[in-house]
Amino acid sequence: MVKRKDPILEQNKAIVTLADFLSAYNKSAPEGFPRATPAILRKFQAAHASLFSASGGKNARNWSIEKHRKKLMDWLPAYHDA
Known about the structure:
The chain is mainly α.
């Protein structure tokens, strides 16, 4: 049996640019949930640098839906309330 690739899973695991992550995140965020902007993503990245690369977060292109979406969703409401 040939195993088919799951395009959604592939997209979620892919390493993408900030702009690609922003687009995918905002499309999939629940209605009424705060939307991300490039500035907000850069602040999240600075606050959670260890999530972005083994070298302490210096690789700004190292975004993935699988790794960062849930953590951003947890952080974003608190950021907006601050």
